[in-house]
Every structure is written in structure tokens, then in C-alpha cells.
Amino acid sequence: MKDIRLFTVLLLLLLSFSCTKQTVQTPADRITTELQKVIKDNNIHRIIAWTDNGGFPTNISPTLGTTWSFSNGFISIQNQLQIFNLLYLNYYDVAKVMVNDGTNPVALILHFKN
Predict the structure, then answer these.
(1) Largest Cα–Cα separation, the chain
(2) What predicted TM-score, i.e. pTM, was given to this entire model?
(3) What residues have CB less than 8 Å from 18, skipping those under 6 apart?
(4) 28, 87 in Cβ contact below 8 A?
(5) What distance in Å separates the CA atoms of residue 102 and residue 77, rounded to the nearest whole number?
(6) Strand-pair partners of 48
(7) Cα atoms found within 13 Å of the Cα of residue 43, Cβ hemisphere only
């Protein structure tokens, strides 16, 4: 009887070590991770997002897109009145933009589907 208890305890210990909890990443989480890597790798300080029907902004203020946050598969960008669903991201690009103060900073440009 003692041997059975010992065997059961050892078996439970082995099973507990072999079970690992895996984190499941959603598609939106993967997009967020990729964009954060692009931001870090390219030293991005400005994000501009636009949709097919909205058109690219032409009068870019010095503060447009300089503050942003990611949350639950969405990105919120300062001075843009929308919150964008990352699942609708069509593509992104890193490029210089013309700001109305005469500067040309590098920005992450996000193009969203309607």
C-alpha cells in the first residue's frame, strides 16, 4: 500500500512538471507585437493612420501622432479622432512626412481597410 502511494505521488509530480501553460497570441496581439518592434527598430516618434475612404492627412501638425497607445487589438493615436482596429490593418510603411512646421520626421504610416 505504501508503494502505491509513493508511486502515485511520484507520478503526480512527473505530470505536474510535464504540463506547461502556453500563452495563446491572437492575430491582433501578433500585429501589436510586430508594430512595436518596427517602432523600436526604426526609432519612430510619430504614427499616422488613415483609411481607404479617409485619405492621407495633408495638414500634419507638429503634435499629430506623437502619442499613441495599444489596447486589446486597437491603436489610439493622439489628435486622430478614431480608434483603429488592428485586424483591419492593410499594410504599414516607414516614411518621412511633411509637417506644417517645415520638418520632415520619419513616421510609421498605418493604412487601414474600411
Answers:
(1) 84
(2) 0.75
(3) none
(4) yes
(5) 22
(6) 109
(7) 1
